[in-house]
Amino acid sequence: AGVIRTYTTSAPLVPALHFLMAALGRTINFSNGKSVPVLGLGTWESKPGDMTAAVKNAVTAGYRHIDCAHLYGNEPEVGAAIAALIKDGTVTRDELFITSKEGGDLLPADSTGKKLYSDVDYVETWEAMEECVKLGLTRSIGVSNFNKKQLERVLKVAKVPIANNQIEVHPYLPQNKLIEFCKSKGITITAYSPLGSPERPWAKPGDPVLTEDPKVKTLAQKYKKSPAQILIRFQIDRGLIVIPKSANKSRIEENFQIWDFQLSPEDIKLLESLECNGRICSSSEASDHPYFPFHDEY
């Protein structure tokens, strides 16, 4: 379905590392007190065979947050990389925050390949996820692509707080209203597609490229940073978690070099002014689903 459930797992950061990263503004806390690095490596749309090296390069560069999903088809590669890094002493499991998501890719399909929607209410799914917390299988749970109305339904029954809502966020879709609502409920936001997903398979000739936007490039020149670094910093300075995707070693390293500057409030507003309802990941194939999240304003 168009609504994806997020199932977030992590081991607690070791105390000394937690204190240092928090002091440097590199982590934020969920409402349950668990700490999460604000910059993570996204793994969506990575080619088969690329992810093991990408994760190794990311952790070596300093990343401690890896965002995954069953749908991406590369979790075994991510796991192999993490196991190797732990074995060779590069990192311990306690230093890593791993997010996994389960969504509509597991739904059955008819003879034409069309998904057969489940009649299980996502509120029931949430209650089952709460059992995972009680059983110690995960420490934090959240959602992805949920709108205000869907969040309110879960909040009415939730015994375990919604830790995070992972949504598409970038200057063409800054999501100010949804972010404001989530923050008012103690729900953190993870911004996916922060660079506008320029390599998305469904991109059409003539589609705007966020990293080529004149205002983004002007800010890149002003701060002596790349457009990608400006777009990543934009999310962090708004108090969000951000998960840029790359399998390229130099880009992975470049994307992590965003700790030595901050955008001014005026420049944050400038980027927000690029808003054009430019949703890239519309999941339009599921628009007939009763819980499709993008029909509402937010």
Describe the fold and architecture.
- Helix 2 (51-61) runs parallel beside helix 9.
- The protein has helices at 15-23, 51-61, 75-87, 122-134, 148-157, 176-184, 214-223, 227-237, 249-256, 265-272, and strands at residues 4-10, 27-29, 35-37, 41-42, 65-67, 97-102, 140-144, 164-168, 188-192, 241-242.
- The chain has 298 residues and is of the alpha/beta class.
- Strand 2 (27-29) and strand 3 form a beta hairpin.
- It has one domain (4-286): TIM Barrel (Alpha-Beta Barrel).
- It is built from ten helices and ten strands.
- Pfam families: Aldo_ket_red.
- Residues 39-102, 119-274 form the NADP-dependent oxidoreductase domain.
- GO terms for molecular function: oxidoreductase activity.
Descriptive keywords:
disordered N terminus; 10 helices; single chain; 8-stranded mixed β-sheet; 298 residues; 34% helix; TIM Barrel; AKR; alpha/beta
Which residues form runs of ≥5 with pLDDT under 50? 1-7
Give the count of structural domains: 1
H-E order = EHEEEHEHEHEHEHEHHEHH
Describe the global form: globular
CATH fold naming: TIM Barrel
What is the CATH class designation? Alpha Beta
Strand residues, percent: 5-15%
Largest sheet features: 8 strands, mixed
CATH superfamily: NADP-dependent oxidoreductase domain
What strand order characterises the main sheet? 4-5-6-1-7-8-9-10
The counted number of beta strands is 10
* Helical content band: 25-40%
- Specify the CATH architecture: Alpha-Beta Barrel
Alpha-carbon distance between the two ends: 18 Å
Helix/strand/pairing class, anyone?
A: alpha/beta
Mind telling me the C-alpha Rg?
19 Å
Q: What's the total helix number?
A: 10
Could you report the average pLDDT, rounded to the nearest whole number? 88
